[in-house]
Amino acid sequence: MGTPLAAPGLLFLLAGTAGLCRAFFSLPLRVSRPAAPSGSLPAPVVLRPASSSRQPDPPSGADGLALASDPGGTLNLLAMVENLQGDSGRGYYLEMLIGTPPQALNILVDTGSSNFAVAGVPDPDVTSYFNTELSSTYKSQGIDVTVKYSQGSWTGVLGTDVITIPKGIYGSYTINIATILESENFFLPGVKWHGILGLAYNALAKPSSSVETFFDSLVRQAKIPNIFSLQMCGAGLPVSGSGTNGGSLVLGGIEPSLYKGDIWYTPIKEEWYYQVEILKLEVGGQNLELDCREIQEFSSGFWTGSQLACWDKTERPWSLFPKLSIYLRDENSSRSFRISILPQVSTFFTLQCYRFGISSSTNALVIGATVMEGFYVIFDRAQRRVGFAVSPCAGKRNTKVIVCLFMIFYLIKCS
């Protein structure tokens, strides 16, 4: 069930209730790989100031939660800090050692798919690939697999091999791995990664949900808590040619040094993508109040971003665009919290052109990469919830959070 909605990268699927009806549409938040020149840039995020109401901290002994650990044990969360490189335009990737003897590859982190796959043959757009013939521990399963994204696809063969994550959990683990033999618009010029790590649920795994996912294998073999967290720090920073902008992928817990303030959780509604519920969407402070499944057309003359618009660099045209706000249901269902997205991503005074950060989609409302880059995001699979906290690296963007009271009777059934 399910086909990846987005190009490889971070994806966070939200099922929404718009206006006064329970309208279930999708709103992915993702870090995409480099798009074609016609692609649009993502909009930045600002979280409003937190209220005095505090989300209760989950108990330290709860299933699926690890806040700290023995540095000499299997799980050392501090060792995973800054283990990612990359940026929002090209994606964030993690170094892995695959096979025996180990072959080092950079693997793109993607929460919108569920397969672990690496380049298995030379490709003009990748600098390295996994040579199965050089690994004494590789075992082919002889099963063909194809994964199609909204942009790009690949075909390969399933197998198993051992992996080690230098800046991850200790030890080596046997993982299902697809070697990519053919691809189309998947590896693009300039990318620094050689494969993709799908961190969504097994419902999205190809060729079937019976394929154990990478993270499920780690939870089972390493006995780590069923939770991971993600911090990305590329927003507002110049794109580094060497890919040195980065972040952190914490497997098995929550690292306190990667966030400040409180963590606000919203329940996971369905386990395929990380699907949560939208209570309300606002544009410029006005509730869209959409009917069930209704996506209204833009009025005539509205600039859709299909063409670049250029101004003198002394002008600030983004001030003409409205702020977007997304209200998510809190674990305490009588209240919600709001994510506010401002029109300006960042300012590079060597450029004089701007892009509209919203484009059309046939299956979802898509908000781009930097929505996630203001947060430390916790994917608490054990307790079926996703958490948001302010990331210290979001200080350059004045990222904040607000929590709002939201009465349940605001939602009524659709007639």
Automatic annotation (TrEMBL):
GO terms for molecular function: aspartic-type endopeptidase activity. It is found in: Membrane. One of its GO terms (biological process) is membrane protein ectodomain proteolysis. Residues 35-63 are annotated as: Disordered. Keywords: Aspartyl protease, Hydrolase, Membrane, Protease, Transmembrane, Transmembrane helix. Gene3D superfamilies: Acid Proteases. GO terms for cellular component: endosome; plasma membrane; trans-Golgi network. SUPFAM superfamilies: Acid proteases. It is a single-pass type I membrane protein. It holds the Pfam family TAXi_C. It comes from the Eukaryota. This is Beta-secretase 2. The lineage of its organism: Eukaryota, Metazoa, Chordata, Craniata, Vertebrata.
